[in-house]
Amino acid sequence: MKAPLSVVIVTHRADALLSACLASVLAQEPADIVVVVSNTERPVVGARCLQMGANIGFARAANAGVAATTGDVLLLNDDTWLHDGCIKSLVMALATATAPAILQPRILLADGSGVDNEGHGLFPDGFVWARGRGAADGALGGRPGGFSGAAVCFSRGAWDALGGFDARFDSFGEDVDLSLRWMRQGGSITPVPAARVSHHLGATYGRSSPDKLYRIERNRVRAAVRSLPAAALATLPALTFARLAVFGGLAATGRGPGATVSGSARLAALRGVRDGCLDAPAWWAERQRDSATWRRGEVAMWSALWQTRARWEDVSR
Description:
Number of domains: 2
Structural class: alpha/beta
CATH superfamily of the largest domain: Spore Coat Polysaccharide Biosynthesis Protein SpsA, Chain A
Order of helices and strands: EHEEHEEHEEEEEHHEHHHHHHH
Radius of gyration: 18 Å
Oligomer: single chain
């Protein structure tokens, strides 16, 4: 019997990684499988295929895929593959949810070296870092502040309440924006450790390419202006400077998020911060529109950010 959960896989190249991902999904018999292909005309066997004709970015491609389904949906990158029982664990978690839900599977590194993430921990300037990255596959505990776009499950009620990803984020940061908007609406992200997914980290853009870091920092500022508490925005430059200073210190010892970042990538990240700040007026206008749906005010949002903060043990590895 097929599980009452659809699966959407976003791919750029429809290559061997997609084949492995699709095979792992087909083995678990979901209700429906939709593969969204950005920039190749290669056929995809075993699923409905949406050919976009060009690289339209992850946000738009994911929106198109989910729009082609009904009911609850599992969204995957093509560089992932599901462990046995993953879909069953998500379906069980959805069945016990008492409200619209966003579920975060446990994502493991494909080389078997440990955890990639179980969602994201939040920094007060809107930056996120992977919860548990590089750790042994053990209990993490607590709730993530943001979900990982590599593998995330939405009840249809949650997806509809948010209206999907904002296509202006293109790729990277669209998950941060949606997570913060969900938090503002009073929601939280529920980890489902029994739902396990392996991930070839950085298979599409690399782990720390200049383009990737530019997008991350630009979109991080956009999401921050849109959803973070006003007091955080007033101190955003200082908070960002402090974060980058900590990352730089850790990188000097070969640890942390900046350990493998090149000089050109660091400059690209700074350009991203600059361009995000230049975009701030437009995202402040989005904030004003969004505020009509907020259930968490400023104090409650600070509390939620603290409870889902990035963990030192993750950042300092």
